[in-house]
Every structure is written in structure tokens, then in C-alpha cells.
Amino acid sequence: MHRAGAALDRLCTLCAVLFCALIVGQNLLFLVQRGQWVSLPALAVTAVLAALCVRFLPDGRWLPGVIFLIRFLCALAVILLVGAEPVQDFQTMYTAACQLARGSHEYLYLDTCYFYNWAYQTAFVVYESAVIRLFGEGYLALQLLNALYMAGTAALVYAIARRLFPAGRAALAAGVLYLLYPAPLFLAAVLTNQHLSVFLLYLGVWVFLGREGTGPTLPRAALAGVLFALGNAVRPIGVIPLLAAVLCCLIWLALRLQTPSGRAVLAALARPALMAACYLLAGALLSAAVVWSGANPNGLTNNQPMWKFVLGFNEESSGAWNQKDYDELYLLQGEEADQAMRETVKERLSVGPVRLAKLMWDKCQLMWADNEYMFWGFGHLDQSAPLAGPLTVGQGVNALCWWDKGAYLLLFALALPALVRRLLDRRPPAAPLLPVLIFCGYFAVHLLIEVQSRYRYFLMPTIALLAGWGLWQLLRPRGQDAPEASERPSA
Predict the structure, then answer these.
(1) Are 46 and 402 in contact (CB under 8 A)?
(2) Is residue 486 part of a domain?
(3) 29, CA 20 to 30 Å: which among 125, 257, 449, 488?
(4) Could you tell me if residue 484 is inside a domain?
(5) pLDDT in tens, the chain (491 residues)
(6) Exposed / middle / buried, residue 250 (Cβ in 10 Å: 0-12, 13-18, 19+)
């Protein structure tokens, strides 16, 4: 079992190395093709700031509070100074939440059948309606809660890193790097379900890891499963950290048990089994509660499961949303739509391996190497309005985008040597396998489904964890090694 576990650990880490190298390479190619050289000084300045913080800032229990406060104040500044106007899906969900808060279910009868096709969006509508009942209609209360969730996620990055890397200052490095990554702030005032979902999912990861990454006890496994289900109800990506955690438990089990007994194996398997069972039970209860409340008779189901694949395999749009597919397929009804979408996916998969490989390359370029799409947070502004001196609002937004690219590239550039180090270690520490698995799973899923730069949000705390590990490896004094390689969490 030990050899099988070590081989699977190596294989997952190798995949993560290849994925990370591809992302770094495509980002460098993007900068060359666009001539966006200003992002490189931004990368250098961010790297120097992070290195100085890791070298000279004192570490302590007060640090998560400081990280929380800084991220919250930055998000609050964006909300108050920039604001945002909900558009597209965000407007649809906010309007539905206002109707639900008034006791109306008119949103269920939209011509586009939005809440039939995407019934799972109802959970976020119910959450927004609860906030509206408490504070009245308007965006500010929801935006302030966004700021709290964003700040909580930033603090969780540090807290999770403390459990993954108990020795050294890698946790400080991870917390600082995520704090210097500005892209989440661009969505601070946007009424997206990403803020709450990401916070809940990473809270589940923190609970799962236990103290110093020793693996979950039965109560922690159950609570982690519930948190993954709650995060999944808000935005349906909870299965990725869940499967990563389950696979992590299985690999830890294989690495720990040299001569396994049946009783020991069953005891160890009880934890991932309980976590998965709690995830499924909590998800089913949440869906039933949505039906019972009358918010949506379809619960939290996905009644158009092929739509994301239709978009994801569109060569013309490089896997992104496009109007043609929407007009020809999405607006069809019921079984007719499902059958048409399945035929379209089958046709798009039959183009041959060369064209599919080209599509995967283009999708990776769009998802992982393109600039952040600034429309969601800044599209409501007059781009030609003066900002400061000769600088216009549009130029200021572009400058933020270019700065973000530098910080973004730095995170992956630091994560890559950390992954390579793990791959080359004869007995790598086991706990950091979890972010490796989350990275592999999220990257692989987006080779198949619709892509856009906004979807990077969920993964970036994981990349910050790996980047913090990489930065500390570069900065640590000679002779001070990483956590003991033989230290393996109990299964």
C-alpha cells in the first residue's frame, strides 16, 4: 500500500508541476504578445514587498486579525469609492431576491427559464433575500458582507498555511502574498456568489486539516463535509475540495499503513466516508428546504447539465460563453434542449485529437493567462472621465489590471519551484498534498467546461498557499529546512 500511495502522490504532484509550468509559460507568452511589459515591474515590486514582510514582520497569533482588517478595509474602500451595478446573472439573482423578500415568486416564471435551468442558483437568492429582509433593498449590506467574506478568506489562507507548514514562516509568506493579490478586490462591490462560496469552502479545508495538518477526526470530517455542502449550495464547485480531501485521506492511509490490518483500514476509511456522507446529506437537506420553502420547486438541481460542456467545447469561442450557442441551444426547452446539447457536445468531441488539443491550449490561455476581465467591477464607470491629472478612469482601470497581472504571475512563478521541490523530495511532507490535489482537480475540470478569468477566484488561495511555501524555500536561512519530510498526517 505504501508504494501505491507514494506513486499516486508523485503522479498528482507531477500533474500539478506540468499544469503550473503551462500557466507560467502561457502568461509569459501573453506578456510578449501584448507587449505588456509594465506587469514585470509590478511583479518585481510585489515580490520585494512580500520578501520584506516575510523577512522582517513578526509572526504571531495576532497576524490573522491584521490580515483580516487590511483586506476588509481595502474591500470597503473599493465598495465606497467605486461601487458597482449588478448586471447579467447578478442582476437576475438580485431582482429575484427582492421579489422573494416581498413574498413573491414571480422570478420563477422568467421567459428564459433561468431558475428552472439553474435551480441551484436559488440558494444564493435565498441568502440575498434574507439579508434584504433584515436591512432593506439596496446593495450596501450585501457588499459589506462581501467584504467580510473576502477578509475571512484572506485570514484563512494564513490559518490553513499554519496547518500545512507548521515550521518556518511559509504561512506568513502565503498570507502576505494573497493579501498583495488584488483581483478579488475588483469584485468587492459585485453581487457575486463567489465571495461567500470561497469563504465556506476554505473554512471547510481549514476544519479538515486539523491542528498542524494532522488529518481530520470524525467530528472534523463531518463538519468539513457540511461546510463543503454549504459552499457548494452557494456556488456548485464544492465537489472539487471534497474529492481532493477524500483522495488525500486515501493517500495518507496508504502511506501510513505499512502492514495494514482490516480493522485499521476500516477505522481510517470511516473519516472520508463520513465526510462524503455529510456532504451528500447536507446537500439533500438544503435542496429539500428550498422546495419546502417554496423558493424553487426544483430544489438545487441543475436541469441543463450539458450547457457548460456545450460552451467548453466550442472552438470558435475558445470555450467561453457565446451568443450563438445561447440563441440556438439555451433557449430550447426541456428534453429538446438536453438532447440538442448532447448532440452538439458529441459533434464537438469528434473533431479529432489535434483540434481538441488546440482547443485545450486556447482555453488555458483564456482561463489562466488572459488579463482579469474588469467589466464586472468597473463597467458602470465612465471610462473617459478624468481621474487624476491627465489620467482617465479607463487608464486607471487598465493600470490596476496590469498590476494584477504581475502579482498573479508571481504567485504561479513561486508555486512552481515549490511543486518541483515536492516532486523531487524522496519523502515529501504529506499535508501539502491537499492544495496539490485541489489545484489538479480545478485545472482539469476547466479543460472541459466553460472558462472565463473570473473563475480563477476559487483557486487563487490554493496557489497562494503553494507560493508561500515556494517563497519561504527561497528566503529561509541555510540549514533551516522545511517541515520534517517524515511527518505524515494520520489517516
Answers:
(1) no
(2) no
(3) 449
(4) no
(5) 677 778 888 999 999 999 999 999 999 999 999 999 999 999 999 999 999 999 888 888 889 999 999 999 999 999 999 988 898 899 999 999 999 999 999 999 887 789 998 999 999 999 999 999 999 999 999 999 999 999 999 999 999 999 998 777 899 999 999 999 999 999 999 999 999 999 999 999 999 998 755 568 899 999 999 999 999 999 999 999 999 999 998 888 887 766 566 776 787 789 999 999 999 999 999 999 999 999 999 999 999 999 999 999 999 999 999 999 988 888 787 778 889 999 999 999 999 999 999 999 999 999 999 999 999 999 999 888 888 778 898 999 999 999 999 999 999 999 999 999 999 988 887 788 999 999 999 999 999 999 999 999 999 999 999 999 999 999 887 655 544 433 444 44
(6) middle
Total of domains in the chain: 1
Domain membership flag for residue 490: no
307 closest CA partner among 356, 352, 344, 362: 344
Residue 216 lies in a domain: yes
Domain hosting residue 387, numbered range: 2-475
Give CA angle at 417 (412, 422), nearest 5°.
120
* Phi/psi at 398 (5° precision): -60, -40
